[in-house]
Amino acid sequence: MKIGITCYPTYGGSGAVATELGIALAERGHEVHFITYRQPFRLPSFLPRVFFHEVDVGRYPLFEFPPYDLALAARMHEVVRAHGLQLLHCHYAIPHATSAWIAREMLHETGRDIKLVTTLHGTDITVVGQDPSFQSITRFSIEKSDRITAVSEYLKGETYHAFGCTGCDVRVIHNFVDPLVYDRKRYAPLLREQFGEKQCVIMHVSNFRPVKRVRDVVRVFARVRDTIPAVLVMVGDGPDRTAAEEEARNLGVHDAVHFLGKLDVVAPLLAGADLFLLPSQSESFGLSALEALASGVPVVATRAGGLMEVVREGETGFLCEVGDVDGMARAAVSVLSDRTAWKRMSTAGQHDARARFSRASVVSDYERLYEDALAG
Length: 376
Ligand code: GMT
Hints:
Rossmann fold, six-stranded parallel sheet, 13 strands, 17% strand, binds ligand GMT
């Protein structure tokens, strides 16, 4: 198949999943064209059958807000025609699926057609899409897609609940993890070199948006540190980084908190971590938690949305209510202070991630979905 993929190329789970899906599809012989405003962050410079088409938004003094959605639609139209694409897979309903619909309407003018597949990742449904100014266009873009997927049962439910979409058939295709990349045994113990053997390494990876509650990460860590020698490694960057740094200073743990900034490759770090914290307000899936589990890192997170489908309570990690800093700290101490329990959880996480979220089976699910769309 000849497939176009549009995603947010920046640091984030949806871009990571979209890119890794494209790479896996190309490995299976499909031709994959990424159409985005920047090279996706997890896309290496060259891979056979993988192409990147940059969307140039242009800057004209007339436009206070350059019309990215239209530039994207025009680029999609151009790439579909130039390369004979059969299908566009958009990650996020707005604006990507909306642009794809415009591109398809333009193609109809010349008697051609293309199938549209949209994957919902969360923010478009749970936050932006429910803003009154975007509600109707989000719903429209979902309903105009030939196939719609959501990354969790939770998100599927939210989609029906928020938008009705009675005529839609939202299918759940979970996110996936590459077991060869997220493998504890594969990497040199970089973090141990830096922090030694005697301290537990607690880790958080995100874009530090308010929804991630990064101050709770620091608060949980400070409580854990009252009992257990530990360091906190914060990977990523975003609006709440300063607040997290300030919280670390206020709680007197700043010397033990290490902010590494944005890193494209996190697997070698995860492979050296003892515990992963994800105290989010809302999470439609929680890809970073899955990557941690696959790397043998028990997860302490919140009972928020899709995280309940990713973390098996008591088996691969612990789930607490949003904001329950004491509960998360108790859970973290319980697993970090009992080596046998930690080992059991670490092994269970690696097995469960491979069994339920394997790259091979999820990529096959998408392949079948595409074939079904093309046949329909
Ligand atoms: O969580 C974010 O802020 C980034 C966002 C994105 O677009 O990458 O993540 C969403 O999609 C990921 C991939 O499907 C999911 O793992 C995240 O749970 C989801 N984020 C939210 O629902 C807040």
